[in-house]
Amino acid sequence: MIEKGELNSTAKNFHSEAKFLDDKKQPKFLANLEGLTITNKVSKANPFKKLLSTVNFSKDHGSAGPRMQGLANNTKDKSTKTEIEIMYEEIRHENSNITVDELEEIFAEQDGKCYWSGMPLLPHTNGTTGYALSMSPDRLDNSGKIWGDYTKTNIVITTQFANRGRVDVNPEDIAWQCRQMGWEPMWFNDPRRDYYLSQVKQDPSLLKTARKKTTKENGSK
């Protein structure tokens, strides 16, 4: 196993190769790599708290974000307002209870690497907006029915690049696709894999992302 200091050095070397079209981002990013602010002061920001804020955002808004909720609040069309409210009921991840400490534990259990790609992660890169190789919390089971939504059992830490590329593909399929790209995902050696496969074999509907029934499906008007 790579020692913590060696891993941190490897991660810094890897991420230091990043280039930005916006010249203002580069010095801030390089300072973040060292855990510093742009004024070279030690950063007091906890990157795992920022990661938790990402979890809470998804918990409240799902993948749609708050923009549509703003539209629902401002529209006078009752039908549109109802449809938006139904949509948010479907995509919220309310079964979530992960903590900052647990996110740090997951990071340590993964030896500071992306779960899907194996790329070294550096927590302080989360301070740079638009950096696709910064940390991202990813749910293994998107149905939320096996281990809950954002819970310690269901969460892995990946790069934003891997998480956004995966979308809602189930973990078994995305793991094989990662291998196609030359990555070696942790999923194949993860003890959760056998349990997950047994559950979806019993209930194939778990392969679909969880959705609550709409008003029409419930037979209501």
Give the radius of gyration.
19 Å
What is the domain total for the residues? Answer: 1
Total beta-strand segments: 2
Q: Structural class, from secondary structure content?
A: mainly alpha
Order of helix and strand elements from N to C terminus:
HHHHHHEEHHH
From the spread of the alpha carbons, the general shape counts as globular
Throw out a few tags for this protein.
221 residues, 43% helix, mainly alpha, disordered C terminus
List the helices and strands and how they pair.
Elements: H1 4-15, H2 25-33, H3 47-61, H4 67-74, H5 78-91, H6 100-109, E1 135-139, E2 155-159, H7 160-166, H8 171-180, H9 192-202
Antiparallel strand pairs: 1-2
Helix pairs in contact: 3-6, 4-5
Task: Report on the architecture of this protein.
A two-stranded antiparallel sheet has the order 1-2. It has helices spanning 4-15, 25-33, 47-61, 67-74, 78-91, 100-109, 160-166, 171-180, 192-202, and strands at residues 135-139, 155-159. It is mainly alpha-helical. It contains 9 helices and 2 strands; from the N terminus they run ααααααββααα. The longest helix has 15 residues, at 47-61. Residues 210-221 have low confidence and may be disordered. Helix content is 43%, strand content 5%. It has one domain (4-207). Helix 3 packs across helix 6 (100-109) and helix 4 (67-74) packs antiparallel against helix 5.
